[in-house]
Each structure stands twice: as C-alpha cells, then as structure tokens.
Write a structure and sequence with these properties.
Layout (H helix, E strand, L loop, with lengths): L5 E3 H8 L3 H9 L5 E3 L5 E7 H18 L3 H28 L5 H30 L5 H20 L3 H10 L1 H5 L7 H13 L1
Antiparallel strand pairs: 1-3, 2-3
Helix pairs in contact: 1-2, 5-6, 5-7
C-alpha cells in the first residue's frame, strides 16, 4: 500500500506557493478536504499532500478556463493596463518626435492653408483684371491666369512637418482640453467675437 503524506496548512501552502489563508479559503470552498485517520475521523488542520495538489491543479485549471477567478481576472486587468500604458507612452514619444499630431492641430493647419489658398484664388480677379484689359492674345491671358492660380495653390502643396509643430505650440489648450462638442473653427470664432467686444 502506498504511503500517505500528510501536511499541515502551512506546509501545503508552501508546497503550492500560496498563502496559508488561501488554503483555508479553498478548504471552506471544499476544494481541499481534511485528511482522515484509519478510523475515518477528520484530522483538522491536516491534508493529504497528493490529493490536495491534484485538487488545486484542477481548481486552477477550471478557474482559468472559466475566467471567473479573482487572481486570474486581476492578472488579465493588470496586463491590459500595462499594454494601455505602453501604447500611451509610445504615442507621447511619437508626438514629441513630431511623428504624430493631435486631430485639432491637423485640422487647424489644413483649415489655415485652405483659407489662404481660397483668399489667394478670390484675389486673382482684382489683381489681374487691370493687366488683362484690352489683351486679345488668348495664350497670354491663359498664362497669366494659370500662373496666378499656380501661385495660390502652391501654398497648399507646401505642407511641412514644421507647420504641425508650430500649430501645436499655438493651440496647446485646444489639444489638451476635452472636446465640448464644438469644432476648432467654432471655438476660434467664439474667441474672435469675445476679442471684438
């Protein structure tokens, strides 16, 4: 007959690398059972080692498979938080290097460039009309208008990383504050209205 090894609560905890309190909790949850003597009487505070190890292995496996274990859930949440923190750190680093820009900055830069181009295009008639009065050569008219349009549109094509870096410094409040449902453009108009009062 195989020899039975009986251990105390502390010895079982040491063997399983868990706290003695956890052993007591698992005993109350009927994962572990107290050992019995040859007459069948319960030996309080004593456990049979091999059946207890098997019972604990089965418990851990079932807990992890169901995802209901508090330790397992805590570990999963901790890993999730660590991944999120790593992602945030990476995004912050890219922002500092100028490889990433906040949406309000991109919107402000593009809005500014498109507005400049629009203003330039709208100014062409008043700027060119006097020069073209009496001009009958279609090629000269075309070349003049084409050159003016090209110059106005060049501002849009001249988009550089520095534009975004400069804009980030000019609009730090919009970038860091939470959106309150207003667009960047409407916030700018509000500022202008306040300044005009």
């Amino acid at each position: 007959m195989a020899r039975t090894f009986r251990v105390s609560t502390n010895e079982l905890a040491k063997q399983l690398d868990i706290a003695p309190r956890t052993v007591r909790e698992l005993r109350a949850a009927e994962v572990f059972a107290y050992a019995r003597d040859k007459d069948g009487r319960v030996l309080r505070g004593r456990f049979e080692l091999q059946p207890s190890v098997l019972a604990y292995a089965r418990h851990v496996h079932e807990r992890d498979a169901s995802g209901s274990g508090s330790e397992s859930e805590w570990t999963r949440q901790r890993i999730r938080k660590m991944r999120a923190d790593a992602d945030i750190s990476e995004l912050n680093l890219k922002e500092r290097k100028g490889e990433l820009h906040a949406a309000p900055v991109i919107l402000a830069v593009l809005t500014s460039m498109i507005t400049e181009a629009k203003t330039g295009l709208q100014a062409i008639p008043s700027r060119v009309s006097a020069r073209l009065v009496g001009e009958t050569d279609q090629k000269k008219i075309y070349a003049t208008l084409d050159g003016e349009i090209e110059m106005a549109l060049r501002r849009i094509s001249d988009l550089r990383a520095e534009n975004f870096g400069r804009q980030s410094k000019e609009f730090p409040q919009e970038i860091r504050s939470e959106s309150n449902g207003k667009s960047l453009t409407s916030r700018r108009h509000s500022r202008k209205r306040r300044a005009g009062k």
